[in-house]
Q: What sequence folds into this?
């Protein structure tokens, strides 16, 4: 069995030797470089634009302004196309604009023979603006007299739903009702490879785009929409990519490089964003305000959870309202016996556009939900872990609630494992009576998530397997490897179903929309879950073809044969080798009368969505005078179904935890509320955790098997980032008695709260 | 454009070059095909461009190409000899310290300098973390990177 073993990652040797090629590592003779002209104000109209000086610089090939671009408004969110017009992403972008909506918006673009010249020329473009009133915060953007950022006003969408019964009835059953408001910051993805893309034409009506994207097939469609081209005339290639975390689940540079190449006779044109541009002019994590209410009975049953979210989507819709809605629909799996009411409003503001970021609205929502439920537990005098154990999902709950499928539910085991690992009970007693400046605290928080986007979006995946002449197998999948290890996990699946050894499966890591089987890409922690059925079916099909050919070569019938460890063996005597697969492969290709290239291709749709679960336990120390927090011990425990590759799974958890700690304790994009001016759009002032900022991280899994996946697995890519914020907040409360209802919990924020509470 | 002649050795190969005085060592290396050297920021914040100049780890984006005159440069490509990974590369592979891989070549060079300087010493994890604090990684949470450094130091 390959599954469950930490085989060598398919790409690891190439990565440690620096051989993997990312978009910028490819170059073409005559490649032109383009640089944007960005607005220095957060809201305004371009009154005049003068490109004369820029065009006069030697080496400048062209300057395009908003007046030159196609008038097709297009959406940018990395969602599959929807047949339902009401469910399509909001189309509110043009390639360049004369109505600038955030500090850094794009009014013109310069193309030159080298990057230095392009940069100089971009600075030489003279733009006059008429300034418009600015709204940065939710309060300002939603005020009745707020200036309209888009023609339809500032409200993007507002929706609500109720699930699991009637809220009004559940309210009457509650002995105690609690309420709180929680705020989360704008967070940046900070993938190490900045956004970069180039395009060229290899025929008058055929475009090739090479891009660092999570979603090559979606990219192709959106470029088609933006340029008014037939989708099949666009080819998108995704080489290795240096992280995305959702910022590359959006179409950012591709329509522009494509447009420029079409305008310049098909010449190759590249845009390589610098770090500062990439931080503020791509996508961010939505800052949200979550107002949570919950009702509990005296015996600690949660009767209802009522969540109301205000989500600031910034200058353009991007993923917009899908963010709060997706989180809302996934959070109901955690305490499914309670009635959940969820409402959300998404609005525009004069700040950088927010889009998808790891766990897609859930870290924000669970910060509110798990902080408030901590208050519920404490209010009725029950231990935080016991309270969650009493209310959390049990096997059978999800089927009972949705009326659909049975799923593995391992949250109870997660809580038990985490509590034992951190030594909850003993430490609780020890920390019960503390005084003095340095105090310790324990915190816990749970989450639930999904394993894809169904039923909100289509879930489609594809896999093609080809038996090579040497008896190895090439595997092509539409699922994109972005560092998370999907190539390896999918190869392990194919290995087991085919009966080959892991080393004999070669994964084509690059996606190329002209040849790669269709799959919308890397997001929603969907890939190992929704690609599994395609891989399983393709491997099964190829195996059957191999055995059929083996029957032609031998006197055995297909039913008597099997493929094991790379050999054709007898079904009932697996040790008896009938044929070497290498010989079979050569025969299938080159025998003059029989066989052919043995391939299998499957495209499959997934109509289930397994909930995954987990929790964070943290033990920390607060220095009240210094307003600082030191994490002594932090543990994530996950129910992700069957673990395909333990080492990579653990790596996903570590990475998510570090990002979650960053969001909880120090990361925030700061924007002046009056001017929309961005203060810290660089990696020195927007500080992500370095080695010394992150404590040793612990990760555990519970053993479950989800019946809706052929291999038992559920999502794992995003969930690890969800529950650090509330668990750290709950632990600070435990240590100091002070509730901090906002992130990041920086020394400055702690100071304000500690002072208000009389601790300082 | 002002130029200057420089001599340097890159991964054991000798070069005599005429370079633009404005060029960074990062650009010089990438133009010559040493694309393991990555640019994550260009201003010394991320460490993705780390190479060894006379065995000292530097951010090549902040290091002028002309300063590399008469030096020996090492990049991740050169650490693997005759198909055999260096002990540090091996340690990264075994520890699971590689995800997207964009930070990896730079981090491997940082660890290489660290291991060569501290051979035979017993260091705490905190000390190891300090030695790697100039290199950002957004994927791994650093846990496996420090595990790799710890193992490499033992080799
Ligand atoms: S590219 Fe040199 S430090 Fe970031
Ligand atoms: S592995 Fe992706 S940044 Fe380090």
A:
């Amino acid at each position: 069995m390959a599954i469950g073993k930490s085989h060598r990652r398919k790409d690891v040797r190439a990565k440690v030797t620096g051989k993997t090629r990312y978009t910028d590592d490819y170059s073409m003779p005559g490649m032109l470089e383009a640089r944007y002209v960005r607005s220095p104000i957060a809201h305004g109209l371009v009154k005049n634009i003068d490109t004369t000086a820029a065009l006069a610089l030697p080496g400048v090939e062209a300057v395009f302004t908003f007046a030159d671009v196609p008038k097709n408004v297009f959406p940018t969110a990395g969602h599959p196309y929807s047949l339902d017009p009401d469910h399509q992403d909001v189309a509110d972008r043009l390639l360049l604009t004369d109505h600038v909506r955030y500090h850094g918006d794009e009014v013109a673009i310069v193309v030159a023979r080298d990057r230095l010249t392009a940069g100089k020329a971009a600075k030489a473009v003279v733009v006059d603006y008429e300034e418009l009133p600015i709204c940065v915060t939710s309060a300002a953007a939603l005020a009745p007299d707020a200036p309209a950022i888009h023609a339809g006003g500032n409200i993007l969408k507002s929706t609500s739903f109720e699930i699991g019964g009637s809220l009004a009835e559940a309210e009457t059953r509650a002995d105690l009702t609690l309420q709180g408001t929680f705020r989360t910051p704008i967070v940046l993805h900070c993938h190490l490879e900045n956004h970069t893309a180039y395009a060229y034409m290899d025929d008058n009506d055929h475009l090739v785009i090479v891009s660092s994207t999570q979603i090559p097939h979606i990219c192709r469609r959106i470029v088609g929409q933006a340029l008014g081209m037939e989708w099949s005339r666009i080819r998108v290639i995704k080489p290795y990519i240096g992280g995305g975390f959702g910022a590359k689940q959006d179409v950012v540079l591709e329509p522009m490089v494509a447009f420029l190449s079409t305008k310049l006779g098909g010449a190759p044109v590249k845009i390589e964003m610098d770090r500062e541009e990439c931080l503020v002019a791509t996508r961010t994590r939505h800052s949200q305000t979550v107002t949570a209410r919950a009702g509990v009975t005296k015996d600690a049953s949660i009767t209802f959870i009522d969540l109301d979210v205000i989500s600031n989507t910034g200058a353009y819709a991007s993923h917009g309202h899908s963010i709060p809605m997706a989180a809302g629909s996934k959070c109901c799996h955690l305490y499914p016996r309670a009635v959940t009411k969820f409402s959300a409003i998404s609005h525009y503001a004069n700040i950088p556009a927010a889009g998808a970021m790891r766990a897609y609205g859930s870290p924000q929502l669970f910060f509110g939900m798990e902080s408030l439920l901590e208050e519920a537990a404490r209010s009725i005098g029950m231990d935080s872990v016991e309270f969650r154990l009493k209310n959390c999902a049990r096997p059978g709950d999800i089927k009972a609630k949705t009326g659909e499928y049975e799923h593995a539910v391992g949250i109870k085991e997660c809580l038990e494992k985490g509590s034992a690992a951190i030594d909850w009970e003993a430490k609780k007693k020890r920390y019960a009576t503390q005084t003095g400046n340095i105090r310790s605290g324990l915190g816990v928080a749970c989450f639930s998530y999904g394993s894809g986007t169904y039923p909100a979006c289509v879930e489609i995946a594809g896999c093609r397997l080809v038996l090579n002449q040497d008896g190895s197998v090439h595997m092509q999948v539409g699922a994109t490897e972005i560092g998370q290890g999907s190539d390896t996990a999918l190869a392990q699946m194919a290995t087991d179903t085919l009966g080959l050894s892991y080393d004999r499966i070669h994964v084509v890591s690059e996606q190329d929309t002209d040849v790669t089987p269709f799959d919308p890409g890397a997001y929603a922690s969907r890939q190992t879950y929704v690609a599994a059925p395609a891989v399983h079916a393709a491997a099964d099909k190829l195996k059957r073809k191999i055995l059929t050919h083996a029957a032609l070569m031998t006197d055995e019938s297909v039913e008597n044969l099997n493929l094991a460890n790379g050999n054709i063996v007898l079904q009932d005597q697996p040790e008896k080798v009938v044929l070497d697969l290498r010989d079979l492969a050569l025969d299938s290709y080159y025998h003059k009368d029989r066989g052919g290239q043995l391939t299998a291709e499957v495209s499959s749709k997934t109509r289930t969505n397994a909930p995954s679960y987990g929790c964070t336990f943290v033990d920390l120390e607060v220095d009240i005078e210094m307003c600082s927090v030191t994490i002594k011990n932090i543990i994530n425990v996950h129910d992700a179904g069957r673990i395909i590759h333990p080492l990579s799974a653990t790596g996903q958890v570590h990475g998510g935890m570090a990002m979650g700690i960053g969001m909880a304790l120090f990361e925030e994009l700061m924007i002046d509320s009056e001017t929309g001016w961005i203060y810290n759009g660089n990696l020195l002032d927007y500080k992500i955790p370095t080695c010394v900022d992150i404590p040793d991280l612990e990760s555990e899994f519970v053993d479950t098997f989800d019946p809706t996946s052929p291999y038992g697995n559920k999502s794992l890519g995003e969930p690890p980032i969800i529950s650090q914020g509330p668990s750290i907040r709950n632990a600070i409360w435990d240590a100091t008695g002070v509730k901090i209802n906002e992130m990041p919990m920086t020394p400055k924020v702690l100071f304000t709260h500690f002072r208000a509470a009389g601790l300082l | 454009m002002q130029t200057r002649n420089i001599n340097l050795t890159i991964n054991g190969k000798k070069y005599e070059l005429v370079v633009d005085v404005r060029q960074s060592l990062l650009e010089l290396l990438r133009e010559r095909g040493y694309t393991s050297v990555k640019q994550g920021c260009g201003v010394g914040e991320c460490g993705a461009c780390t190479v060894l100049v006379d065995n000292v780890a530097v951010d090549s984006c902040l290091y002028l190409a002309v300063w590399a005159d008469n030096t020996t440069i090492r990049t991740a490509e050169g650490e693997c000899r005759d198909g055999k990974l260096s002990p540090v590369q091996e340690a990264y592979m075994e520890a699971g310290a590689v995800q997207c891989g964009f930070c990896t070549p730079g981090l491997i060079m940082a660890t290489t300098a660290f291991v060569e300087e501290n051979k035979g010493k017993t260091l705490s994890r905190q000390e190891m973390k300090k030695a790697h604090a100039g290199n950002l990684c957004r994927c791994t949470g650093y846990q496996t990177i420090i595990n790799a450094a710890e193992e490499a130091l033992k080799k």
